[in-house]
Amino acid sequence: MPIANGLVARTALVFRSSRVAHFIALTKPRVMSLAIFTAFVGMVVAPGEMSWGKTVISIAAIAAGAGGAGALNMWYDAPIDARMARTANRPLPAGEVSSVEALVFGLVLAVVGVIALALAANPLAAGLLAGTIAFYSVLYTMWLKYVTPQNIVIGGAAGALPPVIGWTAATGSPDWQALVLFGIVFLWTPPHFWALALLKSADYSAARIPMLPVVAGETATKRQILAYIVVLAPFAAVPWFAGMAGVVYGGLAMALGAELLRRGWRLMRTPIDVSRGPARGLFAFSIVYLYAIFSALLLDAGV
């Protein structure tokens, strides 16, 4: 009997652990981690003081909001996720989480995140978080993704708002410096996602999603990627020139921008059917680029 009870207990633990993992997957942890990090940087580099207690609660609230938006995105996208090899193993198409569970989970996380941020920081920051969740989970997920190849450009505004939310949580209002941080993430988003879309264009075509490589073709997509990088590389140096950051940030921004340009140019000159390496390399490096840029802001802020 004790052996049987122990077996039941271990089985229940494994079941609960796997369920927890599936719900965590619904929050899109990698996307959420980027939102958390850029929001934290926005809080830290903003003028004024914010207690660590309020900072921790505010970051947790933003994480909940971002996770809720991710869950709502997966809830709505389940039918197309099932048609794409890249996303077929997500919790909903894999049958690990029901549609109702995902919807309720996403809504609860979103509401809790907004309320917690309002209480820990201020109503304006909470309003920006609510608007970001609505923009991503409704405007982008339910409409833009299906109607325009510029979906990731317009929808990228949602992913670029966390540093503004963090700044507003710390100061009570956004200003031009917060918008500079917004601009860096906004300009970074298209080349980052279009590099992936070049690799996964067959998936998007099968799911009838009008991503730029599907609608305009490989060459046009590469030109757009390079064009955005050409604008992003010098724009990322604005915090240095504007006095928001010092020489550590400026030097790193220039070096990273040069490497991003090199990779964009290499992608432009290499057909995908010859080598997928440049697209894969640009996608991976773009993640390093953004984390390094915002880490440099923290270094200059003395963190």
Flag low-confidence runs: 1-16
Largest sheet: none
Count of structural domains: 2
Query: What is the C-level CATH assignment of the largest domain?
Result: Mainly Alpha
The H-and-E topology, N to C, reads as HHHHHHHHHHHHHH
CATH A-level architecture of the largest domain: Orthogonal Bundle
Structural class, please?
mainly alpha
CATH fourth-tier homologous superfamily of the largest domain: UbiA prenyltransferase
Strand content: under 5%
Mean pLDDT across the residues is 91
Describe the structure.
This protein has 303 residues and is mainly alpha-helical. The protein has 2 domains: 23-173, Tetracycline Repressor, domain 2 (Orthogonal Bundle), CATH 1.10.357; 175-303. The protein contains 14 helices and no strands. It has helices spanning 2-26, 29-45, 52-81, 99-120, 123-147, 151-160, 162-171, 176-199, 201-206, 212-216, 218-235, 238-241, 247-269, 277-300. Helix 2 (29-45) packs parallel to helix 14, helix 3 runs antiparallel to helix 4 and helix 3 (52-81) packs antiparallel against helix 7 (162-171). The longest helix has 30 residues, at 52-81. 45% of the residues are buried. Converts heme B (protoheme IX) to heme O by substitution of the vinyl group on carbon 2 of heme B porphyrin ring with a hydroxyethyl farnesyl side group. Its main location: membrane. Interacts with CtaA. Its EC number is 2.5.1.141.
Summarize the topology.
Elements: H1 2-26, H2 29-45, H3 52-81, H4 99-120, H5 123-147, H6 151-160, H7 162-171, H8 176-199, H9 201-206, H10 212-216, H11 218-235, H12 238-241, H13 247-269, H14 277-300
Helix pairs in contact: 1-3, 2-3, 2-7, 2-14, 3-4, 3-5, 3-7, 4-5, 5-6, 5-7, 6-8, 7-8, 8-11, 8-14, 11-13, 13-14
Transmembrane segments: 31-50, 56-76, 97-118, 124-144, 151-170, 176-199, 225-242, 277-299
Organism: Roseovarius azorensis
Enzyme class: transferase
